[in-house]
Design a protein that fits this description.
Elements lengths: L6 H18 L4 H5 L7 E3 L15 H14 L6 H13 L13 H11 L4 E6 L2 H15 L3 E5 L4 E10 L11 E7 L18 E3 L1 H5 L18 E6 L4
Length: about 240
Amino acid sequence: MPGRARPARLALVALVAVLLASAGSLARPSAVAALPAWTGGVDLYRSGAFTTQKTWRWCTAADVQLIRNLVRHEADHSRDGQLRYYRYMRAHNRYPLPPADGVDPAGWAAGLRRFVDDRYHVIANRTFAAALRSAVTNLRRTQRPVGLLVGHGNHAWVLTGFTATADPAVTSRFSVTSVRVTGPLWGLQNRTYGYDMRPDKRLTPSQLHDFLTPWHYGPIRMAWEGDYVTIQPVADR
């Protein structure tokens, strides 16, 4: 009958769709071969890269400076550098935020594309688990840190590493067992467990969930409302 496929044909179509989806979730063999050998985890942090934000508003600017230091093996901690990044990102915000509210996710992503790597994009996920899996997968595939919007978007951290039960670059069958995070308030506001901890702090996924919470901005409803927002260097986009 027109409009109806035979059961066998439906089964074949479903199988092909599954295979294509699985293939799309994995990095190309050549890309995987170029990565450092998998040893159970990744930690991109290095001594001398950390920088403290120069004002209470410049968390994203300090994070751009930190990520640039890590990626380019630099050690810039200047106020002028952070001011440059902050002004550029403010000019590339998606929404017209007042100065007191700083930079939105689109502005932060634009700054990372401009000053670090053009693969950085805003990624919004409906669940924490999806956000975490996506973040560690792209960190592993690109060997680039990931930006995290924490405290409902009121602050910005950097995901500098993680451990997992298997290599996210070659399989989707993995569980994240720990993460490494860095927050630019260290030096201004120091805590053992809070905003902000010692750079490259090891947390469990459950502990990260206390900080990486759904985006919310009170004055207006933004596109990311209720999502877990990260700024990721997306491989093979």
